[in-house]
């Protein structure tokens, strides 16, 4: 009787529980809004309308979501292998360097559809290499990946500051950023898709990397559940002893998983750099790597869940900005509190309501929790 | 019959859809030793957990000493005079015996006074029940048998009149088990009531007065021990007739398949666990390694199967050496026909979070049969898993069920099916039937003997002496990392027990 509760049906596991968690997070956030003297219901309406009410809002929401899909997938791939990659932030940041090199070199020569693939490769390779060092240290020296990846975030940030205020800055410029890219490194917008549905868009940064993010989500699913490599990663993630028993090399699997994770983190940089700002500026990642941890947890490490969770966080970013604008009492920091609550309930306290939901399911529909198979049918 | 110490009336307990206990009625007479037997998952532990306050019954009544009792927490149970000795000891390893005994029952805010008070009480208990333990010894330095005594003393110190022991002999040598039984008899003579949960029928026959049999959550029978037999109990447990002793013909041993020479293995702390061991296994024989858990058997298995590096020595598989330098790859050994059923199926042999079919390729996932380029060939894997499920009667027959949801016996069959179906030349098996129910034990033993009869070399490590004796053609006894004796299968349990305890039998030839 060590496991009195068995699994839930998939739809409850991946749908119902996150919705409950989210609901609770918003209820608590509502109290916070109440505390500063605003109407929480009106705040909720502004938030949702800001994110989804107008075409421009939707485009911004999806633009942010694109970023979070990449970082969420990055965290998830490492997590399937039992590794907690907190270095997504730094891997994405330093990957900006790879993109900068490609774009600055080719933006006057090549059209965007040739620059883009080169930049994808550059961002992935740089991100992967930045993850390689902590991975190697973990695999060979036992240095804990959480510590090393955090340190590498700082190192990445320092390197980028050095480069952006020095070598990469155009002479005479006061801004710590590269020169603006030419048309050959500007990605096409996707706003026309939303306009197809009749919405009007003024100016929004949603661009073709959104599609790349969706393709990567599919490829990650394929990798984790359909390839030998994914099988080995999951084996190691669940039980390093079983992996050793199965003849899976610890060094190889840790390094491979971290490099894939780093590559996905690196690709995140494409979205703001080539899709929006058209330059590499200081702090362009601005915390998206850390949001990726929450997105991955909330999405239950499954690409479909990650895409949905990324859209949710995109909504919080976009709707939150609108909210801060509409309700002066709610400052930018309040938005961060609300996001924090979502992370708290959907990430850290992910399993808080699970036992109750399971008990509820078990009492209504025993077979749905797969319990008839557990006991009482001795071999 | 004496007055009932405990009465359980109509106890029901469900976990979701699993009815772990259905309508259980049980009366335990005061001053007796009452055995409860049943397969894994029959509901014994659940029932005792209800009695000790870990779980609440869904319905039913508990009476202690004739009075209806409400037991919501273990503290309620202790207050009613019920004590429990768990299968896995609940001791703080780096505390002294005395400190462990007062833990949670301190009588004073200052530790010193609690300890002084406990010391005199402990001395009285030790005298009265013959439970000698040095009160100032550090628990982790005590042998397992003495640690168990500390657990018993803990319960008695809290005023237990009714003592529940959950599988108490699993970790003991035969001699230690005998000593435990003497203590239990003494407790009985002093008027205490003992409830003994076990799956070892011989123990039941040896010391209980009454025995109750559970099967699939129900209480199927209660018998006076002297009026029943092992065969009857086994049949009641399983619900059909069971072969307790495997039938097997003479071994037709052929050439040496696996030769271990001067093997020495250290554990992660640098302690020598396997000390200069040599032996051979021939084709067509089963060699059993007997010994109390923790005498180097696990490290021996891990070294041979390439999981743990050896310090020195050699292992030859089919006349070719195995790389023991730490670079040994379990995958490569598999290719060379060495299959390994590990002792710890939960963490090593299986990934419990995987679907059954995913586990049925673990370690063989490089096999082109299961692959399409870099991709898994899901259809082939599932078809293969279905074949094994049918062949090994794995239940439930659902290759997409999470492995954690299979019973212990069926999990073990998943591992066995995977390793045996690769048709290995050498099969090494650790604890083939640990945590496995009686019906599956019979099946597993038959399979192992069938492997032998096909001319495979089989190495079995088990802490169950019965199992070693009934399976093996030759028995090696391990003690403190060394092989202290080799015997035939007809050797008495007493003699093997002495060897296992490190007592060199006179004239024993190495």
TrEMBL record, chain A:
Annotated CDD domains: TM_PBP1_transp_TpRbsC_like
Topology of the protein relative to the lipid bilayer: Multi-pass membrane protein
Pfam families the UniProt entry points to: BPD_transp_2
Compartments, as annotated in UniProt: Cell membrane
One GO MF term: transmembrane transporter activity
InterPro entries for the chain: ABC_transp_permease
Source organism superkingdom: Bacteria
Keywords, in A-Z order: Cell membrane, Membrane, Transmembrane, Transmembrane helix
Annotated GO CC locations: plasma membrane
Predominant localisation class: membrane
Transmembrane segment boundaries: 12-37, 57-80, 116-137, 144-165, 206-225, 253-274, 280-297, 304-324, 330-349
Database matches in PANTHER family: ABC TRANSPORTER, PERMEASE PROTEIN (PTHR47089), GUANOSINE ABC TRANSPORTER PERMEASE PROTEIN NUPP (PTHR47089:SF1)
Protein name per its UniProtKB record: Nucleoside ABC transporter membrane protein
Species of origin: Mesorhizobium qingshengii
TrEMBL record, chain B:
SMART domains for the chain: AAA
Keyword Nucleotide-binding: yes
Pfam family, one: ABC_tran
InterPro entries, per the entry: AAA+_ATPase, ABC_carbohydrate_import_ATPase, ABC_transporter-like_ATP-bd, ABC_transporter-like_CS, P-loop_NTPase
UniProt domain ABC transporter: residue ranges: 6-241, 258-505
GO molecular function: ATP binding; ATP hydrolysis activity
Keywords assigned: ATP-binding, Cell membrane, Membrane, Nucleotide-binding, Repeat, Sugar transport, Translocase, Transport
GO cellular component entries: plasma membrane
Domain of life: Bacteria
PROSITE patterns, A to Z: ABC_TRANSPORTER_1 (PS00211), ABC_TRANSPORTER_2 (PS50893)
Main localization, broad class: membrane
Membrane topology classification: Peripheral membrane protein
Subcellular location: Cell membrane
PANTHER family per the UniProt record, alphabetical: CARBOHYDRATE TRANSPORT ATP-BINDING PROTEIN MG119-RELATED (PTHR43790), GUANOSINE IMPORT ATP-BINDING PROTEIN NUPO (PTHR43790:SF4)
Family: Belongs to the ABC transporter superfamily.
Protein's UniProt name: Nucleoside ABC transporter ATP-binding protein
Organism: Mesorhizobium qingshengii
């Amino acid at each position: 009787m060590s496991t009195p509760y068995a699994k839930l049906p998939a739809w409850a596991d991946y749908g119902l529980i996150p919705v409950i968690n989210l609901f609770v997070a918003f209820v608590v956030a509502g109290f916070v809004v109440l505390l500063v003297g605003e109407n929480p219901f009106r705040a909720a309406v502004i938030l949702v309308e800001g994110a989804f009410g107008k075409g421009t809002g939707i485009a911004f929401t999806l633009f942010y979501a694109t970023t979070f899909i990449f970082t969420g997938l990055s965290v998830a791939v490492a997590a399937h292998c039992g590794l907690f990659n907190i270095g997504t932030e730094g891997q994405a940041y330093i990957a900006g360097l790879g993109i900068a090199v490609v774009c600055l070199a080719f933006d006057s020569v090549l059209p965007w559809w040739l620059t883009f693939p080169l930049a994808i490769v550059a961002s992935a390779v740089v991100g992967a290499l930045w993850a390689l060092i902590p991975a190697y240290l973990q695999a060979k020296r036992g240095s804990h990946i959480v510590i090393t990846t955090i340190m590498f975030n700082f190192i990445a940030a320092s390197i980028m500051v050095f480069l952006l205020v020095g070598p990469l800055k155009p002479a005479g410029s006061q801004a710590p950023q590269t020169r603006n890219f030419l048309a050959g490194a500007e990605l096409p917008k996707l706003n026309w898709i939303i306009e197809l549905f009749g919405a009007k868009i003024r100016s929004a940064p949603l661009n073709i990397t959104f599609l790349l993010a969706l393709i990567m989500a599919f490829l990650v699913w394929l990798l984790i559940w359909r390839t030998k490599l994914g099988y080995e990663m999951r084996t190691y993630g669940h039980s390093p002893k079983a992996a050793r028993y199965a003849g899976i090399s610890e060094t190889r699997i840790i390094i491979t998983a971290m490099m894939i994770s780093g590559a996905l983190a690196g690709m995140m940089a494409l979205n703001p750099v080539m899709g929006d700002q058209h330059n590499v500026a200081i702090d362009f990642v601005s915390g998206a790597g850390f949001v990726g941890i929450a997105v991955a947890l909330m999405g239950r490490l499954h690409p479909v869940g990650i895409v949905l969770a990324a859209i949710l966080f995109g909504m919080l970013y976009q709707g939150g900005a609108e909210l801060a604008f509409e309700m002066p009492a709610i400052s930018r920091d309040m938005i961060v509190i609300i996001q924090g609550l979502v992370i708290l309930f959907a990430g850290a306290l992910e399993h808080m309501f699970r036992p109750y939901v399971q008990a509820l399911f078990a009492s209504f529909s025993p077979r749905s929790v797969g319990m008839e198979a557990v006991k009482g049918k001795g071999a | 019959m004496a007055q009932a110490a405990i009465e359980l009336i109509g106890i029901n307990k469900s976990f979701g859809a699993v009815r772990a206990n259905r309508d259980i009625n049980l009366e335990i007479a005061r001053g007796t030793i009452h055995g409860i037997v049943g397969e894994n998952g029959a509901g014994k532990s659940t029932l005792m957990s209800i009695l000790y306050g870990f779980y609440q019954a869904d319905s039913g009544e508990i009476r202690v000493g004739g009075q209806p009792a409400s037991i919501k927490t273990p503290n309620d149970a202790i207050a009613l005079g019920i004590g429990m000795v768990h299968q896995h000891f609940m001791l703080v390893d780096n505390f002294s015996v005395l400190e462990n005994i007062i833990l949670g029952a301190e009588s004073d805010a200052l530790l010193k006074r609690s300890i002084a008070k406990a010391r005199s009480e402990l001395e009285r208990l030790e005298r009265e029940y013959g439970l000698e333990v040095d009160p100032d010894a550090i628990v982790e330095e005590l042998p397992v048998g003495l640690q168990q005594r500390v657990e018993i003393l803990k319960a008695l110190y809290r005023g237990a009149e009714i003592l529940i022991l959950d599988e108490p002999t699993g970790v003991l040598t035969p001699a230690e088990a005998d000593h435990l039984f003497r203590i239990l008899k003494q407790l009985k003579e002093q008027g205490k009531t003992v409830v003994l949960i076990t799956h070892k029928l011989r123990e039941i026959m040896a010391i209980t007065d009454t025995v109750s049999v559970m099967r699939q959550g129900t209480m199927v029978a209660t018998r006076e021990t002297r009026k029943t037999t092992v065969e009857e109990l086994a049949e009641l447990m399983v619900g059909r007739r069971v072969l307790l002793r495997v039938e097997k013909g003479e071994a037709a041993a052929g050439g040496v398949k696996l030769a271990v020479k001067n093997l020495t293995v250290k554990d992660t702390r640098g302690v020598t666990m396997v000390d200069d061991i040599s032996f051979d296994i021939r084709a067509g024989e089963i060699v059993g390694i007997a010994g109390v858990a923790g005498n180097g058997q696990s490290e021996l298995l891990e070294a041979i199967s390439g999981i743990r590096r050896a310090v020195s020595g050699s292992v030859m598989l089919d006349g070719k050496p195995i790389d023991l330098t730490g670079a040994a790859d379990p995958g490569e050994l598999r290719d060379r026909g060495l299959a390994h059923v590990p002792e710890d199926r939960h963490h090593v042999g299986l990934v419990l979070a995987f679907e059954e079919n995913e586990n049925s390729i673990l370690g063989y996932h490089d096999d082109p049969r299961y692959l399409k380029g870099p991709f898994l060939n899901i259809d082939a894997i599932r078809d293969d898993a279905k074949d094994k499920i049918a062949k090994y009667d794995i239940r439930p027959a659902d290759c997409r069920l999470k492995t954690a949801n299979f019973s212990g016996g069926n999990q073990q069959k998943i591992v066995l099916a995977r390793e045996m179906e690769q048709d290995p030349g050498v099969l090494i098996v650790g604890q083939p039937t640990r945590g496995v129910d009686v019906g599956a034990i019979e099946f597993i033993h038959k399979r192992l003997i069938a492997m032998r009869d096909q001319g495979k070399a089989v190495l079995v490590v088990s802490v169950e002496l019965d199992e070693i004796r009934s399976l093996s053609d030759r028995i090696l006894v391990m003690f403190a990392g060394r092989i202290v004796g080799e015997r035939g299968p007809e050797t008495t349990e007493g003699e093997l027990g002495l060897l296992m305890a490190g007592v060199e039998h006179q004239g024993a030839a190495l």
